[in-house]
Amino acid sequence: xxxxxxxxxxxxxxxxxxxxxxxxxxxxxxxxxxxxxxxxxxxxxxxxxxxxxxxxxxxxxxxxxxxxxxxxxxxxxxxxxxxxxxxxxxxxxxxxxxxxxxxxxxxxxxxxxxxxxxxxxxxxxxxxxxxxxxxxxxxxxxxxxxxxxxxxxxxxxxxxxxxxxxxxxxxxxxxxxxxxxxxxxxxxxxxxxxxxxxxxxxxxxxxxxxxxxxxxxxxxxxxxxxxxxxxxxxxxxxxxxxxxxxxxxxxxxxxxxxxxxxxxxxxxxxxxxxxxxxxxxxxxxxxxxxxxxxxxxxxxxxxxxxxxxxxxxxxxxxxxxxxxxxxxxxxxxxxxxxxxxxxxxxxxxxxxxxxxxxxxxxxxxxxxxxxxxxxxxxxxxxxxxxxxxxxxxxxxxxxxxxxxxxxxxxxxxxxxxxxxxxxxxxxxxxxxxxxxxxxxxxxxxxxxxxxxxxxxxxxxxxxxxxxxxxxxxxxxxxxxxxxxxxxxxxxxxxxxxxxxxxxxxxxxxxxxxxxxxxxxxxxxxxxxxxxxxxxxxxxxxxxxxxxxxxxxxxxxxxxxxxxxxxxxxxxxxxxxxxxxxxxxxxxxxxxxxxxxxxxxxxxxxxxxxxxxxxxxxxxxxxxxxxxxxxxxxxxxxxxxxxxxxxxxxxxxxxxxxxxxxxxxxxxxxxxxxxxxxxxxxxxxxxxxxxxxxxxxxxxxxxxxxxxxxxxxxxxxxxxxxxxxxxxxxxxxxxxxxxxxxxxxxxxxxxxxxxxxxxxxxxxxxxxxxxxxxxxxxxxxxxxxxxxxxxxxxxxxxxxxxxxxxxxxxxxxxxxxxxxxxxxxxxxxxxxxxxxxxxxxxxxxxxxxxxxxxxxxxxxxxxxxxxxxxxxx
Length: 872
Fold this sequence. Notes:
Blueprint: H1 3-13, H2 26-32, H3 37-54, H4 62-84, H5 89-94, E1 100-105, E2 108-113, E3 122-126, E4 134-146, H6 148-151, E5 157-158, E6 176-177, E7 182-194, H7 200-210, H8 217-247, H9 252-266, H10 270-288, E8 291-293, H11 297-301, E9 307-311, H12 312-316, E10 322-328, E11 331-336, E12 345-348, E13 351-353, H13 359-367, E14 372-373, E15 379-380, H14 383-394, E16 403-407, E17 415-420, E18 426-431, H15 433-438, E19 440-445, E20 448-451, H16 454-468, E21 473-481, H17 484-489, H18 492-495, E22 499-508, H19 515-524, E23 528-532, H20 537-547, E24 555-556, H21 557-562, H22 565-572, E25 577-579, H23 583-595, E26 600-604, H24 610-615, E27 618-622, H25 628-633, E28 636-638, H26 643-688, H27 695-698, H28 704-715, H29 717-722, H30 746-774, H31 777-802, H32 811-829, H33 833-836, H34 843-869
Parallel strand pairs: 9-23, 9-26, 19-22, 23-25, 24-25, 26-27, 27-28
Antiparallel strand pairs: 1-2, 1-3, 3-7, 4-5, 4-6, 4-7, 8-28, 10-11, 10-22, 11-12, 12-13, 14-15, 16-17, 17-18, 18-21, 19-20, 21-22
Helix pairs in contact: 2-4, 3-4, 3-9, 4-10, 8-9, 9-26, 10-26, 13-14, 19-26, 22-23, 26-30, 26-31, 28-31, 30-31, 30-34, 31-32, 31-34
């Protein structure tokens, strides 16, 4: 291609980069935090408080208004911080592009920016480089690419120029290279067919953009709860205002002030902030378990997961090749490496055996490879060859002889041969077992060299098939001595003949040893684990068997394509293994599970996992081996890449849900009690004590400032301390909560109502009893004000007792209760009492408050006992 034609195509197709994501401005993000009915009601209440104070003859209510506004702004800041950190996955995808590319233009190779690559460009590719665009291979010389991040394929892919069918799956397109993958071996030339958003990685970027952010079930429930509370507050205000204005002839200003008071009493303004802080504290506990929560609501959502869709490579396996089996000299040996830096242990029939008899096999694997080792001890090269070299090095079998000659590996020969120097030159071969056997006429058995007859050959091939059926990659090895003349003059076929077969080395991307136990724990907790992988279905079945997954009905990606949405929904209910899947397949599987009312966590580490991670109820990425794209698209990042960490995070998530349910019960029961106290108290005061309850100052038994203070000292620190309660011991022996189970289930809702009514009955009895005895409105109001604070502290014991939490297990809760009571005393006995309209209590009055609190606790316990025995 000429430079002029390249410039024309750059104008036509655009730069070779992924499209920018439209980002919401910080101002719009902040404003979005206040688009809520409850928030609107509180804003209205604040404005009414200010407006009432500006009217002639009215008292100022600036304190009430400022308190309301301060709480609203703090809540908005919390939400803004979380939203501002989102939507960065596509930017990470863009940064995967290679910075430079080698292309041939005007007949000569040259370096250009990868963004200038256009369809039709001729790419020059070499080992160690990153592929800048999707391209069709024209020439391939021992060329292999690492496509794990795109397809999930754990092994390097050997490329060729052979023609393939148009509908060949991505993972099997051996004549293509793909943008953002890496060349690990050989060299090639290829013609670019797609750039930018038209590449396979561009299509993934499109899928990520199309996946809508989903709210967790708890977020949706909080939204529904807020809507109901808002409508209930409006209805309640209308009823009370109508009764007071039409029946009791209450002045309009008093009715407006009552509306403000009811709004403040009814709206749990502390709920969003306490939920956010509790989730943040829960996230810190999860972090101590080596999992980083990127979106706070997911900390609670973990507890509701009932299906984990797990990628295989790097998640269930270690994402590295390792030799696990040796067959040499008529015996099969299992290889164990205790730690990365330690010597291997060789086991036969469960007993440790000496290295003797295996040295030649290990040395052949070390010599017949192209692995380099850096000064830091890192291995560079094909992962299969690295596994061979690393095992030999750790076993102390050093590859000393110098290489004199090489017959390189290619996909048609399926073997590699090297000739090494020494006192006598030696020939070493590795390759596909059946190919290597064809080049051998003898075999090393128990220290002897025997003729390779048909029975011995059949036995070796049977061993190869047996190991391959268990997902091992099996290579055969052979050697013989040569003379200098043969090394110098013989052709390749002559050198690669008359060899002595040494044995087989079987390697695999090993499963993480702790994963089968973690899967068993998940199963006990009612969580189903499903493996989705880009590997072929035979490998997937073998790994699944090792992990304890059900392999019946395993499906390949092509079969998923052939199923309708309804048929796929039925299939995913029974299938635990999916192989050869693409990003689109993963999203379809997720959606099918959701239609079956499942809550799904998806694990992954590659670029190809990003759409599914975004679409999942909980997206879980690997922190060590994962790509930046996967980590940014995910909700949870495993810092140790350990599947057991998912189990631990789920256990913490279930504990967080229990704590949320407890403090929601605590907050809403307090708000119900406050609303009913204000509602009933105002009506009783207007009708029974018309001379006492007159004017805007005296019409309310509790003022907005009092209610905000109650919510601050009781709904704040104690509710937050509930969020760090330890989880119960049986949390992973329960099944996940069902999709239709809410935080406010029947038992919880009844508890809220019961506690609220008990608070109302005892509180109003205390208030009106004091008023009848003393006619002191300020004193009676102070008694009620203080009683609500102490009663709400005491009800914590009742609520935690229902959950089976040990009473002395949370020192933070005791500190929170003590600080709340101390703050209440500060209001009563300092100059702060004047703006709140209260006074200090005498010892006798404190006894009355504590006595009323004791009666309230007894009533709450009675109700709690009855409800705990009733069906939920």
